[in-house]
Amino acid sequence: MADFHGPSTPQTSTLTQWFPDTSDLGQLQEQSVGEEGSHLSKRPAALEKGPENLTTAEDIEQFLLNYLKEKDVADGNVTDFEEQSDPPKVDEKDTGPHVKPPLPLQIQIATDVMERCIHLLSDKNLKIRLKVLDVLGLCVEVLQAHRDQLLPMAHRAWPALVHRLTNDDPRAVLRAFKVLRTLGGKCGDFLRSRFCKDVLPKLASSLVTQAPVSARAGPVYSHTLAFKLQLAVLQGLGPLCERLDLGEGDLNKVADACLIYLSAKQPVKLQEAARRVFLHLMKVDPDSTWFLLHELYCPEQFIPPHPSLHPVQLRGATGQPNPYAASVLLLLRELQGAESSPLPSLQTGAGPTRPKAVAAAERTAKVD
Question: Which of 24-28, 67-71, 293-297 shows the lowest per-residue confidence on average (mean pLDDT)?
Answer without folding.
Answer: 24-28
